[in-house]
Amino acid sequence: MRRFVVSLAVVCALATGCGSSDNASNSTSTKPADTGSTSAPATDPVPTTTIATITERGTLAVGERVETYVDASRPTAANKDYAGADDRTFETVLWYPATGSPSGSDEVPDATVDAPIDTDHGPYPLIVLSHGWTANPQVYQVLGRTWASAGYVVAAPAYPLSNTSAPGGPIIGDVSNQPADATFVLDQVLADATLAPVLDESSIGAAGHSLGAITTFGLAYADCCTDDRIDATIPMAGVAGLVESPDNYFDGPATPLLVIHGTDDTTVPYASSVDAYAKASAPKMFVTFQGGDHIWPYIGGAADDRRVSFQEMTTAWWDHWLKDDANALARVRSAVGTSDPPASLQESL
Predict the structure, then answer these.
(1) What digits encode the pLDDT tens for the residues 296-336?
(2) Which has the closest alpha carbon to 84: 7, 174, 11?
(3) What is the C-alpha end-to-end distance of the chain, expressed in Å?
(4) Between 236 and which of 139, 209, 218, 250 could a Cys-Cys bridge form, CB atoms 3.0 to 4.6 Å apart?
(5) Is the Cα torsion angle 230, 233, 238, 240 positive or negative in sign?
């Protein structure tokens, strides 16, 4: 873990400086972020609720299956004692709404392996969920299952050279290939004979944590790699860089952006998200977890008020942009108000 903290922070600094932008966008509802510091963006008060009032995350049973997709058109580079390959292989976890009665514990829906898909409540938007360096899709099952129970199909690929079991050991340097990997995986899921009939191919989201957030920024906002099918994003504890030069982001159409980051992240500095948010065009929101580190609440753990509010705010963001729910942004704001330790919100819509 120490190697992860040092290496990714150094690469982040080299790629972007993780510093400020001179092109900050003014917010219509709050003060703009102070992009010259790592303090939290100024915010207006958000509605205060209690965890007991959060009831809209999901009501559907969840299925889980694993598919292996092979992109024969692109190689995997050699890595230490690994000789490389002529193709790129992605073991991909799929979470989806399933038939049957929902169950779960600790605010996490259970998932039944290979359960029949629920065809009664679709069509379902599709979300590609990208893991962090040295991680894997199952690390993010809390999010994947949460979103599936709320009526989404979630595809979480293991990237060839950055996942836990990468041949030669996980590396950061292959991240420039990962946006194209995500595009390939989306293509395969959309062509899946079982899933395609219940997917809403006009509503696609992209989310990721850490190196997965870097992948997400590349997939939706980098000049080299933008997939125009992406309708909304949630980069968590990431940086808009590494995939290509930081100057080559946010030049295209404005894809709705929800940035989430903790102020005490010592792996990917909080300032990197301040910078990305400032450069991005509206519509956008920025949730700051006061005192938040690089891991919590993105990965597992008990259902405290921060993790549950995180599950709710992300689901509500998807509901607004991928399901046209006019009330969902109010749920984002309400969820921010439930976080304990506290969170703050900046928005420009």
Answers:
(1) 999 977 788 899 999 999 999 999 999 999 999 999 999 99
(2) 174
(3) 37
(4) 209
(5) positive
DSSP state string for 288-328: EETT--SSTTTS-----HHHHHHHHHHHHHHHHHHH--TTH
Rounded CA separation 57/73 (Å): 39
CATH superfamily of 2-348: Alpha/Beta hydrolase fold, catalytic domain (3.40.50.1820)
CA distance 109 to 143: 10
Tokens 């395969």 correspond to 188
Tokens of 127: 């979300």
Please report which confidence band the pLDDT of residue 8 belongs to, taking 50, 70 and 90 as the band edges. Answer: low
pLDDT class for 16, splitting at 50, 70, 90?
very low
The string of pLDDT tens digits covering residues 112-135 is 999 999 999 999 999 999 999 999
Q: What residue spans define the domains of the chain?
A: 2-348
State how far Cα 259 lies from the chain centre: 9
Cis peptide leading into residue 160 (ω within 30°): no
Residues in the chain, total: 349
Residue 54 pLDDT > 50, yes or no? no
Q: With b meaning 16 or more CB within 10 Å and e meaning fewer, what string describes 284-318?
A: bbbbbbeebebbbbbbbeeebbbbbbbbbbbbbbb
Tokens of 213: 């957030």
CA–CA separation, 243 vs 226, rounded Å?
A: 11
